[in-house]
Amino acid sequence: MPSDGHGNKFVFTSVGSFPVDCGSEDITGHFDGWGQGHVFGPPNNRHVELGVFHFVFTYTNADGDEFVWRDVGPDLQYEVDGVLFVAITGRSTASGDAGRNNVVLGHVVIRDPFGTPDVVFVAGKDLGPLDDLACDALT
């Protein structure tokens, strides 16, 4: 777990499991990780928050085989004309709707990430949906 920066940062953890339909068989996904955010105060600061995250997604099939994906990197949230954007650098597994969809190794910018997400910039390698990568590896 990361430090809370003597109260200057917030820290959260998240753990859960989910089913994945691979067509020919079902597998189980599990995630476990943490995020840390540093909120920047006004006035005149367009950078709203800097976040660092570390999540591990582990997929398991009926034979006990595993596919593991680490989602690690920084996020920068900022405002432009009152609209929130998030810039994700590194391994992005939230390139579109903050779910387990297109994995991008590189840089992704999303407008209105907590409302109606709209990917406005992608640079790097798009590997496709994370669940599909797991299904390809385990079925």
Share of helical residues? under 10%
Question: How many H/I helical runs?
Answer: 1
Mean pLDDT: 84
Q: What best-fitting shape do the alpha-carbon axes yield? A: globular
Terminal Cα span: 33 Å
Residue fraction in strands = over 45%
List the helices and strands in order. Answer: EEEEEEEH
Count of individual domains: 1
Spatial sequence of strands, sheet with the most strands: 1-2-3-4-5-6-7
Mind telling me the C-alpha Rg?
A: 16 Å
Q: Largest sheet at a glance?
A: 7 strands, antiparallel
Number of E-type strands: 7
The oligomeric state of the chains shown is single chain
Explain how this protein is built.
With 139 residues, the protein is mostly beta strands. The protein has one helix at residues 130-138; strands spanning 9-21, 26-39, 47-60, 66-80, 83-92, 102-111, 118-129. Helices cover 6% and strands 63% of the residues. Strand 3 (47-60) and strand 4 (66-80) form a beta hairpin. The longest helix has 9 residues, at 130-138. The protein is globular and about 55 Å long. The mean pLDDT is 84.
Brief sketch in words of this structure:
The protein has 139 residues and is mainly beta.
Write the layout of secondary structure elements.
Layout: E1 9-21, E2 26-39, E3 47-60, E4 66-80, E5 83-92, E6 102-111, E7 118-129, H1 130-138
Antiparallel strand pairs: 1-2, 2-3, 3-4, 4-5, 5-6, 6-7
